[in-house]
Amino acid sequence: MTSLTPYDVIGGEQTILSLVDRFYFYMDTLPEAQGIRAVHQPSLGSAKDKLFKFLSGWLGGPNLFIEEFGHPMLRARHLRFAIGESERDQWMLCMNKALAEMTMDPRLKTNIQNALQQLATHMINQEPAC
Question: Is residue 127 part of a domain?
Answer without folding.
Answer: no
